[in-house]
Specification:
By secondary structure, this protein is an all-alpha fold. The chain is built from 14 helices and no strands. It folds into two domains: 220 residues, no CATH class; 52 residues, no CATH class. It is 82% helix and 0% strand. Helix 8 runs antiparallel to helix 13.
Amino acid sequence: MLAIFKKELKTYFLTPTGWIFLAVFLLISGILYSVQLVFPGNSQYAMFLSSLLVIYILVVPLLTMRIFTDEKRYGTDQLILTGPSNLWGIVFGKFLAAFTVFLITIGVTFLYPLLLSFHGKLDWPMIFGTYIGFILLGASFIAIGVFISQSSEGIVSAAILTFCALIITFIIDFMQQYMPATELSGLVWAAILITIPLFWLYSKGRNWAVTAAVALILAALILVLWFSGRNMFAGLIGKSLGWLSLTRRFGSFAMGILGLDSVLYYLSFIGFFLFLTVQGLEKRRWN
């Protein structure tokens, strides 16, 4: 893993990718810093950090689009897939390299509150809390980008798909209020949700009998819940979308609240997408 990490980190700064990421981020963040804080004499730094999230929708795809697509482009992915390499070490090493570049940009932005502190009193606990949430949210974005890079065949498609995925994480809260809240819609949504693990199960073993048996068990469970208390299905779509929201949990960090449940959620989210990346590589290895 350490060798992969060093190689990927060096690649970021020996090619334009890392420098473009840093330049774009620092340019836009500098403009926002001046417009939102310096010119109006505002000291609400946590609000400034929240606005930086929009920048990462644009720049994270630049950071992650080449992570695995370059391996496919130059044929070096065959060395990974046919060798005795630990796939977890490879995926985590690549993720860690991208995350390190991300942390460098975060470190540079820490100069902003230090400059503001000379001209007014800042709420440092809230600032530190926002930074922690910002780091966890950024790591989640990168995990999504790593997974999409592994699943894509080209650099452009990886960047576009990552951009679209990050946009969805932002608009999911707005989508929630427009979702149907009836019990029947919740039942249909529950049926749709169980197809996800079923699809994964079938893709792993290609065994229709096992997949059908698990499908019957899950369907029976949903029917039992439906007849025992169908009111729990009311608003299920909105509730599940709210549970998936990354930006909603960031709001508590922006208020200086370090909730253990939010931290564990972000860490689980990161681990889940890295797990999907490893499974994708494992599937290609066996194919």
